[in-house]
Amino acid sequence: MKNVSVNISSFQTSRREIPIGERTLIMGVVNTTPDSFSGDGVYGSPEKAIEEGCRMADEGADMLDIGGESSRPGSDPVTLQEELKRVIPVVRGLSAKLSIPISVDTMKAAVAREALDEGAEIINDISALNYDPEMARTISAYKAAVVLMHMRGTPKIMQKGDLTYRSVPGDMITFLRERIEKARSEGIDEERIIVDPGIGFGKTPIDNMRMIRYLQDFKSLGRPVLVGVSRKSFIGHVVGGTPRERIEGTAAAVTAAIVYGADIVRVHDVSFMKKVVMMADAICRA
Fold first, then answer.
1. For a disulfide at 262, which of 53, 223, 227, 239, Cβ 3.0-4.6 Å?
2. 41, pLDDT greater than 70
3. What residue ranges in 126-255 does DSSP mark as E strands?
4. Planar angle of CA 270, 272, 273, nearest 5 degrees
5. What local confidence, expressed as pLDDT, does residue 38 receive?
6. Distance (Å, rounded) from C-alpha 281 to C-alpha 277?
7. What is the mean pLDDT of the chain?
8. 3-state DSSP helix/strand/coil percent for the chain, to nearest 5?
9. Mean pLDDT computed over 71-86
10. Pairwise CA distance, residues 180 & 221, whole Å
11. Hey, is 113 helix, strand or coil?
12. End-to-end CA separation in angstroms for the chain
């Protein structure tokens, strides 16, 4: 694929304009699930999740992503009521305490709606508006920002069967271009769209690493690029260890993602990765 870079200066949420390109932004992950692949879920205690989010903000997170449904390979979906119970009190508490943007990682329009009512500004939909037919209209009505991610199938089955693609990253870029058009046709302004290549979602370890090398190609979509590599299994494929033991491998992957064009990195270890991002930015912008 031809490398075509489009300069993007910012993106819009329902509450603010967020500059892009001055430095790499950090999205801190707050999981409220008992079965997070990364082993960091803060389950059953909104107070602890709120404390975790506040700590990440103090450590330098530019935004937080709150999730109440695991997307690890093989995971089962949770009910709407369970996801609401896990997510909404945390969004409410963090929105009251923090000034940074709150994102919610959900495929359900009802969860998005209540989260946006409580102060969330970004919906991180790993299905790229494919799961819930009401999601696009909900995001449009609230003028929220949306993350559109490439995923093969659903978390339950995404790592099963033939993982071969005709082109990496060409297939992912084609998919995301179609989803951007879908979002626009449903009334979501283009300046509110972020794209995510979906590293770890229905790809082989080699394909995940290849996508990082070709992140610059995703700039042809004309939207900010968010990358989530933190603690993922493709890192374990190289360095071994449990998810929590992959911090050095994550640091290398985050650095490479920044070098190759990531605008936002989604991480679990904010304090550690903040310094990694600062150094990578200093080198790339020297």
1. 227
2. no
3. 145-149, 193-196, 226-227
4. 65
5. 47
6. 6
7. 92
8. 45, 15, 45
9. 86
10. 9
11. helix
12. 28
Q: Is the CB of residue 104 less than 8 Å from the CB of residue 111?
A: yes
Token pair belonging to 24: 């790499």
Active site residues: 232, 266
Domain span at residue 110 reads 25-279
Backbone angles phi, psi at 251, to 5 degrees: -60, -40
Question: Quick one: angle between helices 46-59 and 270-284, nearest 10?
Answer: 30
Specify if 14 maps to a domain: no
CATH of the domain at 197: 3.20.20.20
In a domain, 268, yes or no: yes
In a domain, 10, yes or no: no
**How many domains would you assign to the chain?**
1
Residue 262 makes CB contacts below 8 A (sequence gap 6+) with: 24, 215, 225, 226, 227
Beta bridge partners of 218: none
Q: Are strands 17-19 and 10-12 parallel, antiparallel or unpaired?
A: antiparallel
Identity at 123, one-letter amino acid code:
I
Phi, psi of 214 (to 5 degrees): -110, 25
Asked if residue 3 is part of any domain, the answer here is no
Phi, psi of 220 (to 5 degrees): -65, -15
- Maximum alpha-carbon separation in the chain: 49
